[in-house]
Specification:
By secondary structure, the chain is an alpha/beta fold. The chain has four domains: about 1-50 and about 150-320, Rossmann fold, CATH 3.40.50.1100; about 50-140, Rossmann fold (3-Layer(aba) Sandwich); about 325-400, 2-Layer Sandwich (Alpha-Beta Plaits); about 415-500, 3-Layer(aba) Sandwich (Biosynthetic Threonine Deaminase, domain 3), CATH 3.40.1020. Helices cover about 40% and strands about 20% of the residues. It contains 20 helices and 18 strands. The chain has helices spanning about 1-10, 25-35, 50-60, 65-70, 80-90, 105-110, 125-140, 150-165, 180-195, 210-215, 240-250, 255-270, 275-290, 315-325, 340-350, 380-390, 400-405, 435-440, 475-485, 495-500, and strands spanning about 25, 35-40, 70-75, 95-100, 115-120, 140, 170-175, 200-205, 250-255, 300-305, 330-335, 355-360, 365-375, 395, 420-430, 450-455, 460-470, 490. The strands form four sheets. Strands 1-2-10-7-8-9 form a six-stranded mixed sheet, with helices on both faces. Strand 16 and strand 17 (about 460-470) form a beta hairpin. Helix 8 crosses helix 9 (about 180-195). The protein is globular and about 80 Å long. It starts with a helix and ends with a helix. The mean pLDDT is about 90.
């Protein structure tokens, strides 16, 4: 019942460990999108994430005997730190099961709070199943990261604080969604007291289990999830969080990696704080939704839900933020190898700032150029490409092409003379010792690697692009190799940028 959640939230025991996070104005973003934007700063919590609220509320409501026996959870991130700190404050045993792929930084943070870390499995699912086994074996209490009424109520205190901090008009609140605990708690509270406020869930395009579930009227299990916004990478949402979201959430908006990177940069420029990808997800959705619906003059709130950012990942964020903010566009341009061509091309570029320029002669007649240009708005890249074409230059707008943005921009350098039967694939895999060797050892020795590019982005996952010469007679074996390997992959053999620069 909704009244049960109102009572649970109003009596939640979160403030023994959590703080009432500030609701800060974002004047630069507000001016740019012509709406009043406020940021609910959950990155200001002691563990730099909202997860502390739900974990502590669950544990503080346990019977004394259950606390004496201890608690257990499965998590590779913020929930683990929330449970560890809560156990430290309550003086109880805490066992945290984490995948073996968890970065050492996060393992050390949990151990620093005197929790017992058990490294098991390569995915959250492996860790979760092992945690459930240990729960029964050692008579511990499982603290679920999202699908528990006490956890949901703890997260719902964020909604309570928002209404207390901003009693004036609020048009919409944007909430990042993974398993659904945060949006379920916030929506259950807000909709009972201020039903006119729209609650908008934000998900990534490769981890949208809740949006798909609401659309289809049943919980949907995703076959795999993207790893960039690891805090929201959930294949199956909770039963209770799904029920509450279906009842109270007004709409969903789906964003891509570039939009998240742009939002991280936005918050840094406003606050000098660096959010993790999941923490910036709500703001990315706010900006996209406001633009899609042409909102002006509205009051919009984004919950900045976490800031446990791996510092090395900032390299990737910086690379992609300009594209996500629609400040950079990238193109493949073909021009004749003749005097005056380059000058004519530069005249077309005009006063625009050139952010990147890569060139290599393809033959005596044509040259292919990879160029990045500074732009002012999202729709500008297609107009620039059309203008190049009108003046005799073949141009492809690569602004939204993943292969080009992640790999090719670092690889422009000509074509190999003999690459018959070359297949080009992108792979994404967890960053752990042995992952690359597992890939290589799985390949047939008959397949020659004709192209290979890998760049460590400092995150929890790695990306490679590989060219392999696979004879037509080995096509069936190649398909078996891909299915058994277990890494996410994309066939890029017909990608037009690959054909121009590398094939």
């Amino acid at each position: 019942m909704a009244t049960d959640y109102l009572k649970r939230i109003l009596t939640a025991k979160v403030y023994d460990v959590a703080v009432e996070s500030p609701l800060d104005s974002a004047p630069q973003i507000s001016a740019r999108i012509a709406n009043t934007v406020l940021l609910k700063r959950e990155d200001a919590q002691p563990v730099f994430s909202f997860k502390l609220r739900g974990a502590y509320n669950k544990m503080a409501n346990l019977p004394p005997k259950a606390l004496e026996r201890g608690v257990i959870c499965a998590s590779a991130g913020n929930h683990a730190q929330g449970v560890a700190l809560s156990a430290q404050r309550l003086g109880c045993r805490a066992v945290i099961v984490m995948p073996v792929t968890t970065p050492q930084l996060k393992v050390d943070a949990v151990r620093a709070r005197n929790a017992e870390v058990v490294l098991y499995g390569e995915s959250f699912t492996d860790s979760y199943n092992h945690a459930k086994e240990l729960e029964a074996k050692e008579k511990l209490t499982f603290v679920h990261p999202f699908d528990d009424p006490d956890v949901i109520a703890g997260q719902g205190t964020i909604g309570m604080e928002i209404l207390r901090q901003h009693p004036g008009p609020i048009d919409a609140i944007f909430v990042a969604v993974g398993g659904g605990g945060l949006i379920a708690g916030v929506a259950a509270y807000i909709k009972q007291l201020r039903p006119e406020i729209r609650i908008i869930g934000v998900q990534t395009e490769d981890s949208d289990a809740m949006a798909q579930s609401i659309s289809k009227g049943r919980r949907v299990t995703l076959p795999d999830v993207g790893l960039f916004s690891d805090g929201t990478a959930v294949k199956l949402v909770g039963e209770e969080t799904y029920r509450l979201a279906r009842k109270y959430v007004d709409d969903f908006v789906i964003v891509d990696t570039d939009a998240i990177c742009a939002a991280i940069k936005d918050v840094f420029e406003e606050t000098r704080s660096v959010l993790e990808p999941a923490g910036a997800l709500a703001l990315a959705g706010l900006k996209k939704y406001a633009a899609q619906h042409r909102w002006k003059g509205k009051t919009l709130i984004a919950i900045a839900c976490g800031a446990n950012m791996n510092f090395d990942r900032l390299r990737f964020v910086a690379d992609r933020a300009e594209v996500g903010e629609a400040r950079e566009a990238v193109f493949a341009v073909t021009m004749p190898e003749e005097r005056g061509s380059f000058r004519r091309f530069c005249e077309l570029v005009g006063n625009r700032n050139v952010t990147e320029f890569n060139y290599r002669m393809a033959d005596s007649k044509l040259a292919h150029v990879f160029v990045g240009l500074q732009i002012a708005s999202a729709g500008e890249s297609s107009k620039i490409a059309a203008n190049f074409r009108r003046h005799g230059f073949t141009a492809i707008d690569l602004t939204h092409d993943e292969l080009s943005k992640t790999h090719l921009r670092h690889m422009i350098g000509g074509k190999a003379p003999a690459t018959d039967n070359e297949q080009l694939y992108r792979f994404e895999f967890p960053e752990r010792p042995g992952a690359l060797m597992r890939f290589l050892n799985s390949m047939s020795p008959n397949w020659n690697i004709s192209l290979f590019h890998y760049r460590n982005q400092g995150g929890d996952y790695g990306q490679i692009v590989v060219g392999m010469q696979v004879p037509p007679s080995d096509k069936k074996a190649f398909k078996t190799f891909l299915s058994e390997l277990g890494y996410r992959h994309w066939d890029e053999t017909e990608n037009p940028a690959y054909k121009l620069f590398l094939r």
